[in-house]
Design brief:
Blueprint lengths: L1 H19 L14 H9 L5 H9 L4 E5 L10 H6 L2 H15 L1 E7 L6 E5 L4 E4 L10 E11 L2 E9 L3 E8 L10 E7 L7 E5 L20 H20 L5 E4 L32 E4 L6 H18 L3 H5 L7 H7 L1 H28 L3 H4 L5 E4 L7 H15 L15 H31 L12
C-alpha cells in the first residue's frame, strides 16, 4: 500500500522539487531555433518560488514548549536542543510549505530520543483514514545498492511495532514475491513513530498532498513570468537598438568574393558621409520595453496576492514608511503565518509527546495541555509595543514578567536570563535588607543604652 501510494505521489513531488530548483518548463521555442535564441531561453528563467517559500518559513520558529500552569519549558524541550532542532526545524517547515507535507521520526536514543526530519521525497506516510491524527505506517526510501551481484533498492517500513528493512529488485518493488525482508527492530512505542506535518488539511478525499503546498498554485504564474522575460530579452537583443537605414546608394561588392561590402559602420567616433546629394539616411524607432515591464510586474503582483506575500518583499520600492503602514502591508502574511503555526504547532506537540513516551516520561507524554511557543516575527515598533505593554501592566494589573515574551525580538533564552537576574537581584536586595536590619538592631544609641530599651 505504501509503495503504491508513493508511486502515485512521486511524479508531482519531483516536478515541484524541480521547479523549486529552477528546472522549469521552458518557454516556447521554435524547433529550428539557433544557439543564440536557446541561450536567451535559458537566461529567461527567473525563479521566484523559493523566495515565496522563504518569506513564510523565515517567520516560523519554535522557541519553547510549556503548559499553562508553569512559565518554564517542560522536560521534552531538552530533546529539542539535543537533536539540533533549532536549525533543523526549518527543513521541516520548508518541506511542508513546498510539498504540502513533511515528516518527523521519533525513536528511542541513548541519552535522548532521536528526532529526525524527513522530506516527502524520501518518506511516504500511509493511513487508512486520511484525517487521522497518527499514521498507520510509513515507507522510507534509502537508495540503491548492490547485493549478491544484483542491483536492489533499500527501504524501511515503519509500523506500530517495529522498523523493518526491505530489499526489492530495482524496478520491481511492486512484486512482493521478490522482496527480501530483513530483520525488524522494535521501537517500543505505542504507535507508528512518524509524525506528519500537513501544510493544510485536505478538503476532498482524492486531493494529492502536493496540491496543498504553497508552490503548485504559483507554477502557472512562474511559467507566465518566464515567457514575459523571454519576450523582453528578445526585444532587448533584436529590437531595442535603433537600426539605421539608407536609400539612394549602391552597395559595392568585393571583386573576389562578390559579397556586399559594409560601407557604413555605426560608432560613437564615426561620421557617415556621401557625395551624392540624393542619398537619404534615417533610423527605425526602438521597441518600447515598458509594456513588458508592466506585464512582468503584474504577474509578480498576482503571485504576491495568491501567496499572501507583501508586494514589497518581491518588488521592493517601499521606503520611509511608518510602522503602522508596514504592519498593515504585512497583515496578510501575518495571517498566513499564524495559520501555519496552528498546523505545524499541533504536529510539533505530537512529536514532543512521542519523544516523552520514548524517554519513559508517561505523565508528560499524556499532557495535551502543553503547547509550543512560536517566536513573534511580526513587524512592530519597539517603543510603541513597550509602551502598550507598560500600560497593560499598570492599568490592567497584568504581571510585568508575563509580558516580557511579547517584547519584539526577545527570545525565551532572554526571558530566562532576565528571570535569573531578577531572582539574583531580589536575593541580593533581601540580603542587604537583612544586613541593614541587623546593623540597626546591634547599634548603640547616643545615651549608651541598648536599642529598644526602655
Amino acid at each position: 500500500m505504501g509503495l503504491a501510494q508513493r508511486k502515485r505521489e512521486m511524479p508531482e513531488l519531483i516536478r515541484v522539487d524541480q521547479y523549486m530548483r529552477g528546472i522549469q518548463d521552458a518557454p516556447y521555442m521554435p524547433k529550428r531555433a539557433e544557439a543564440e535564441f536557446r541561450r536567451l531561453v535559458a537566461r529567461s528563467v527567473e525563479n521566484w518560488l523559493p523566495l515565496v517559500v522563504s518569506v513564510i518559513a523565515q517567520n516560523l520558529r519554535v522557541e519553547g514548549y510549556r503548559s499553562t500552569d508553569t512559565p518554564n519549558d517542560l522536560v521534552p524541550w531538552g530533546y529539542w536542543s539535543a537533536n539540533q532542532l533549532d536549525s533543523r526545524q526549518n527543513a521541516v517547515h520548508r518541506a511542508a510549505l513546498t510539498f504540502g507535507r513533511a515528516y518527523v521520526a521519533v525513536t528511542p536514543g541513548d541519552r535522548a530520543p532521536a528526532i529526525r526530519p524527513f522530506s516527502p521525497l524520501s518518506v511516504t506516510g500511509v493511513a487508512a483514514d486520511p484525517d487521522t491524527e497518527w499514521l498507520d505506517g510509513a515507507v522510507r526510501y534509502l537508495g540503491r545498492s548492490r547485493r549478491d551481484g544484483r542491483d536492489v533498492e533499500r527501504w524501511q517500513v515503519w509500523d506500530d511495532q517495529a522498523v523493518t528493512e526491505v530489499l526489492t529488485p530495482e524496478g520491481e518493488h511492486e512484486r512482493p514475491d521478490k522482496w527480501a525482508v530483513g530483520t525488524a527492530e522494535p521501537h517500543g512505542l505505542s504507535r507508528c513513530p512518524i509524525v506528519v506535518f500537513r501544510n493544510r488539511w485536505a478538503d476532498a478525499p482524492d486531493t494529492m498532498p502536493h496540491e496543498l503546498g504553497e508552490v503548485v498554485p504559483l507554477i502557472p504564474i512562474q511559467d507566465r513570468l518566464n515567457e514575459t522575460t523571454l519576450n523582453m530579452k528578445i526585444a532587448e537583443s533584436y529590437s531595442a537598438f535603433r537600426q539605421r537605414w539608407a536609400s539612394g546608394i549602391s552597395i559595392p561588392r568585393d571583386p573576389e568574393t562578390g559579397q556586399p561590402v559594409e560601407t557604413f559602420r555605426a560608432a560613437v567616433d564615426r561620421l557617415w558621409m556621401v557625395e551624392n546629394k540624393d542619398v537619404r539616411f534615417g533610423e527605425f524607432e526602438q521597441t518600447d520595453l515598458s509594456g513588458y515591464l508592466a506585464s512582468r510586474e503584474a504577474a509578480i503582483k498576482s503571485m504576491s496576492a495568491i501567496a499572501q506575500v507583501p508586494p514589497h518583499f518581491l518588488l521592493g520600492g517601499m521606503v520611509n514608511i511608518s510602522a503602522d503602514a508596514l504592519t498593515a502591508a504585512e497583515s496578510g502574511l501575518s495571517r498566513r503565518v499564524h495559520e501555519r503555526q496552528l498546523m505545524y504547532g499541533e504536529a510539533w506537540e505530537q512529536t514532543l509527546r512521542l519523544a516523552a513516551e520514548a524517554d519513559g516520561q508517561e505523565a508528560t507524554a499524556g499532557d495535551r495541555t502543553a503547547r509550543v511557543v512560536w517566536h513573534d516575527a511580526e513587524a512592530r515598533s519597539l517603543s510603541a509595543t513597550v509602551d502598550a505593554l507598560g500600560k497593560l501592566s499598570q492599568m490592567l494589573g497584568v504581571p510585568a514578567e508575563a509580558l516580557w515574551e511579547r517584547v519584539p525580538g526577545v527570545t525565551s533564552v532572554d526571558v530566562q536570563a532576565w528571570r535569573k537576574a531578577r531572582t539574583q537581584d531580589d536575593t541580593a536586595n533581601l540580603a542587604a535588607q537583612l544586613l541593614m536590619g541587623q546593623h540597626t538592631t546591634d547599634a548603640t544609641p547616643v545615651d549608651g543604652g541598648p536599642v529598644g530599651s526602655e
